[in-house]
Amino acid sequence: MICLSLNQVTLNRLSLPAAVDLCRSAGVPAIGVWREKVAEVGLSEATRILEASGLIVSSVCRGGQFHEPDAVAENRRAIDEAAALGARVLVLVCGGLPPGSRDLGAARARVGAGIEELVPYAVDKGVRLGVEPLHPMYCADRSVVSTLSQALDLVEPFPSEHVGVVVDTYHVWWDPMLDESLERARGRIAAFHIDDWIVPLPAGALLGRGLPGEGSIDLAGIAAKVFSAGYDGPVEVEVMNERVWDADPIATIEAMLRGSEPVLARADPVVV
Amino acid sequence: MICLSLNQVTLNRLSLPAAVDLCRSAGVPAIGVWREKVAEVGLSEATRILEASGLIVSSVCRGGQFHEPDAVAENRRAIDEAAALGARVLVLVCGGLPPGSRDLGAARARVGAGIEELVPYAVDKGVRLGVEPLHPMYCADRSVVSTLSQALDLVEPFPSEHVGVVVDTYHVWWDPMLDESLERARGRIAAFHIDDWIVPLPAGALLGRGLPGEGSIDLAGIAAKVFSAGYDGPVEVEVMNERVWDADPIATIEAMLRGSEPVLARADPVVV
Fold this sequence. Notes:
Largest sheet of chain A: 8 strands, parallel, barrel
Oligomer: homodimer
Number of strands of chain A: 10
Structural class of chain A: alpha/beta
Strand content of chain A: 15-25%
Strand order of the largest sheet of chain A: 1-2-3-4-5-6-7-10
Order of helices and strands of chain A: EHEHHEHEHEHEHHEEEHEHH
Largest interface: A-B, 33 and 33 residues
């Protein structure tokens, strides 16, 4: 079902229970949860709260980080949590260069090997993995997977029901190959995140995302192509921004509802 | 001739005459000049100083900015200046989205039309144009040309002696298609800029470049592929960084000489 989802990082100051309550009162039918927020209340309590809420768990953020020495064990824990929470996908943010390294090829190969190692465990637990390309400005320190095409190369060796890609407008909007890659992603899109590009970037470049409609991205245009490629799941609003975090959460939810209207309007009525 | 060049923005606090003097005393045989610095002394005086110096003028920065209403007239002035200065190339930074626009396709089409309009004038003046893809983090506000492949698509309709591409390590290092694009760029590389990627990015993301060797980019590895694609011109160090600007210029030149050694070492001796 194509519907709106709150990725809870958008309201990063709220606990999981508070974010769940706000989704319910605002009529947002789905939520993307972060493992740190789940840990705050404990996995079993988080599971109980989410089940009782009736919300769709559109994603768990996040696994990946294949440059870390303990990546395998940590990713297995993330898969266990995603399984317990009944999430549609575990988002993989694949990690940057190891400290001091300039070997991008080796780092990218390590991501491929890491995914391959995880897949059997994810299949066993019934969790779908979603490889998220991150904007190239995060290549050194957050993800050596920088384009949707590259993410598709990584996931295509595996069955699409077990391994897909995550399309986030902030990360992919600039890509001259985006249209071709979205066509190629048919059946592979495990999650769709919307957020907007605003300038200037803040120091660190991490917390500069805009709410849908605030920036330069043709969100509705990209959404039309995502839906046209067969994606019919939740549309998650994922905004990391101190200004948004400092704002009244109810005002943020309202802005998010308004800003995502033109995006959801692009869903093919036949699909919905 | 493969040799080191100082892009004068690396010593942005110096005037053109001071930068020229420093190149000569440090044994740097080439300089990339900025139009603002040329304007400070006047074009004819700049031309006289550069001719007297014996330095190669590896580039003029810059033309482009096709989103500006007066782009054609301004680019013609830039071509005139590059011709007067005897520069190897006029670097084109193609401009971002017009204010308020989200139409990336239209902005990219405008760049193509803008280049097409400029070429006859550049041919007439004997100036080679160099289209520089900028890092995707500048897509909204500085350049909708974000990859080398895209730049090659733009220049390939024109003769390579008149229109080429500018490869800058800071802008292209992350690109999973870089190797293929560099092979495709054979005969088209009009300039090669080196600088390094360091994190975290500063606010605005513009002045965070590192001197060669300070960051995450495999400069020598990329240089080997650039030389292997037939490029045999100056290697310009172009670093925009407040910290570097605040440092002693002689120390910066020395760091630049040290940091570029492994890059210049990758020049095929047969080519040199």
